[in-house]
Specification:
6-stranded antiparallel beta sheet; 6 strands; binds Palmitoyl-CoA; Thioestr_dom; HOTDOG_ACOT
Length: 130
């Protein structure tokens, strides 16, 4: 799993228990998955279709640094299935895992659009194809 993104927990990210607000974390995960999928599928109109059960296993407090990891599970026709893990860099604990997040590439009418992708592509692969 690649951990591309780090976040620093600020006062505005906390819940009344003074720990990381779960809704904020889900927003960051959704954004991370959307950006990853838009780049992989080369389609800016890519939406979140499905997210499996989530389990908050630990948390983070103000000043902690967390990192968000994404891994591809499967390339479908119009979909890309990802899994996600968020870790606390300070405590080294897993905060959350999401086993299945399905993103779907859309056409101009908002209908699923086959993306034709079958494997993870890196910038250098794309440059070599030019
Ligand atoms: C110009 C540059 C701009 C750049 C800009 C960048 C800005 C970057 C900002 C990012 C910011 C964050 C962005 C967050 C992203 C949102 O928050 S998106 C908002 C929330 N999501 C939505 O509103 C989606 C609403 N749902 C829909 O519109 C329709 O359900 C969909 C997505 C069109 C799919 O329609 P559908 O009839 O279910 O389609 P269907 O053909 O049955 O299924 C399509 C695929 O989904 C799969 N699927 C369907 N249902 C399920 C299910 N329940 N479970 C699993 N898989 C399923 C199917 O298996 C199928 O897979 P493939 O066989 O194609 O691989």
């Amino acid at each position: 799993m690649n951990f591309h993104t780090r976040k620093w927990i600020k006062p505005q990210d906390l819940n009344p228990n003074q720990t990381l607000f779960g809704g904020r974390l889900l927003e960051w995960i959704d954004e991370e998955c959307a950006l990853y999928s838009i780049i992989q599928l080369e389609n800016p109109k890519t939406v979140t279709k499905y997210m499996s059960e989530i389990d908050f296993r630990s948390s983070a407090k103000q000043g902690d640094i967390i990192e968000i990891g994404i891994e591809v599970v499967k390339f479908g026709s119009a979909s890309l299935t990802l899994k996600c893990e968020v870790r606390n860099k300070m405590t080294r604990e897993t905060i959350i895992t999401v086993d299945k997040i399905v993103m779907v590439a859309l056409d101009e009418n908002g209908k699923p659009k086959p993306h034709g992708k079958t494997k993870v592509e890196f910038v250098k692969d794309r440059l070599e194809d030019k």
